[in-house]
UniProtKB/TrEMBL annotation:
Coiled coil: none
DNA-binding feature ranges: 43-62
Protein name as annotated: TetR family transcriptional regulator
Species this chain originates from: Streptomyces sp. SID14436
Annotated region (Disordered), positions in chain: 158-189
Length: 246
């Protein structure tokens, strides 16, 4: 999936919201500093200072400096997976995924500048771009897994207790919390091998739909809202991508 910034509507208690806000502040500081000075010239100390937190707090959220540049909101995929599992069982998978993504993209127009800066940072730092692509592939795999779960066990859809597959343990914002440990390449390959075609395709198509929506709207901001473009993209997908009238 493309970089996305979660909203306050994601829920959670005050402590969870503060943790999300701290992580978001660190990521935004890292991206803005990297856009101005180049990622290789940005230190953990500079990022922490810009975000108004200590270096120790930085390492509660990230295992290394480069982790702060990889994605804008590392929790998005988890929220999308949860929303997919909790959606009504009779709702079509494409609609379920569209609605889950729409919540995460609710502030797309406000966050567009940060997304643009993030894309520029990745373009000028090939090693960060590779890491970002790997992270998005892992998220895509996890989304495909929950789609597959809905298809195999529709009765589980809509249940608050449904398990949420995760590509790796998420880092916590607690003081002294241990950082996340990514899964191995072998584990990731095995998970992708286990996927059926439809869930894999739907997760990939949804990711492409988000990217196309963002890029198309970027060139037409004076003409249409992002929400309008996003809805049209998914309407075209739902209709089977019919050729437009001549």
């Amino acid at each position: 999936m493309q970089p996305m910034t979660g909203t306050e509507a994601a829920g959670g208690g005050l402590r969870e919201r503060k943790k999300r806000a701290t992580r978001a502040a660190l990521t935004e500081a890292a991206v803005r500093l990297a856009a101005e000075h180049g990622a290789d010239n940005v230190t953990v100390e500079a990022i922490s200072a810009a975000a108004g937190v200590s270096v120790r707090t930085f390492f509660n959220y990230f295992t290394s400096r480069d982790d702060a540049f990889v994605v804008i909101d590392a929790d998005v995929a988890g929220r999308v997976r949860k929303a997919v599992l909790e959606a009504p069982a009779d709702q079509p998978p494409l609609d379920v995924l569209r609605d889950a993504l729409a919540v995460e993209l609710a502030e797309a127009e406000r966050q567009h500048e940060l997304w643009t800066l993030h894309a520029a940072v990745l373009r000028t730092s090939p090693h960060l771009l590779v890491r970002s692509l790997i992270a998005h592939m892992a998220d895509e795999t996890a989304v495909a897994e929950v789609i597959g779960l809905r298809l195999r066990a529709p009765a589980a859809a809509g249940a608050d207790t449904a398990p949420v597959p995760s590509p790796a343990p998420e880092p916590r914002g607690d003081a002294g919390a241990a950082p996340a440990t990514p899964g191995s390449d072998a584990d990731e390959a095995e998970r992708r091998r286990a996927l059926e075609l439809y869930p894999r395709l739907l997760a990939a198509v949804a990711g492409a739909a988000v990217r196309v929506s963002v890029e198309h709207w970027s060139f037409r901001q004076d003409e249409r809202t992002f929400a309008d473009v996003f809805r049209e993209v998914f309407a075209l997908l739902a209709a089977g991508l019919p050729a437009p009238p001549r």
